[in-house]
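Q: What residues go here?
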């Protein structure tokens, strides 16, 4: 009976982790470029009393065997890179990626971070940066006398300066993609970093080569891909699973209590 207690405890712990993942998704429902996560589970080892195919006492072969499972564990948290809704802002430095790819930014450590959050700004030097001041890579500097900024679907950045009617290109946004984006590691601030599981970054310009079906849209932002109704349904399911495991623990406790009282 103690086995049932420990088995149900693994279920309760796993569902608590599941609720934690759902809570993080819900809390980021309005986070620009956020990609929801999903908890995945695996069963633990099974205790084997007789193996399938073992010889029986009469020289026959057991067709199925006898095993009992020992619970569940969290196997992974899968990051779902489905596109979020595109929202118009009208801000010339708000950019949305439509298709595959990430913007590249340089972090404090000098490493490259990857993000779908295109809410960029200009710093005191006119450099294109994130909300945390991380410069976009490759560096793009907008002249201080620029009166208009035009960013093309391919990521070309052009400006019209005061006293001129012509647009001059001052930079080119480069995107990165990965063979396994789910293998990237979240480092907060709407950014991911490369890992051995994600593979090396494949860099290019929107509309060309590996990014032929990708465009960059100016004046728009990509919202979170969290569907609040779906998350609430998942929360109800996780809560009921937690309650069921709690009832198994309670039932096991009652049986142990009865056994102790008979001694």
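A:
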């Amino acid at each position: 009976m103690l086995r049932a207690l420990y088995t149900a405890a693994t279920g309760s712990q796993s569902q608590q982790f599941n609720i934690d993942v759902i809570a993080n998704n819900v809390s980021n429902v309005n986070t620009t470029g956020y990609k929801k996560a999903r908890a995945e589970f695996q069963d633990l080892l099974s205790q084997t009393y007789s193996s399938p195919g073992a010889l029986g006492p009469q020289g026959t072969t057991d067709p199925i065997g006898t095993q009992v499972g020992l619970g569940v564990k969290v196997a992974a948290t899968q990051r779902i890179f489905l596109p979020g809704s595109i929202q118009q802002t009208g801000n010339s430095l708000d950019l949305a990626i439509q298709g595959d790819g990430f913007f590249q930014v340089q972090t404090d450590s000098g490493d490259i971070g990857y993000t779908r959050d295109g809410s960029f700004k200009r710093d005191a030097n006119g450099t294109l940066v994130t909300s945390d001041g991380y410069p976009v890579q490759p560096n793009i500097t907008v002249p201080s006398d620029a009166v208009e900024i035009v960013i093309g679907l391919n990521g070309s950045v052009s400006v019209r300066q005061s006293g001129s009617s012509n647009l001059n290109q001052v930079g080119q946004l480069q995107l990165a993609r990965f063979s396994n984006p789910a293998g990237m590691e979240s480092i907060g601030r709407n950014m991911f970093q490369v890992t051995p599981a994600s593979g090396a970054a494949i860099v290019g310009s929107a509309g060309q080569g590996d990014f032929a079906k990708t465009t960059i849209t100016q004046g728009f932002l990509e919202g979170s891909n969290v569907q609040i109704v779906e998350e609430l349904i998942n929360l109800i399911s996780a809560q009921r699973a937690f309650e069921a495991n709690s009832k198994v623990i309670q039932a096991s406790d009652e049986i142990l209590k009865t056994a102790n009282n008979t001694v």
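A: Context that may help when evaluating the design: DSSP finds two helices and 19 strands in the chain. The chain has a mean pLDDT of 92.
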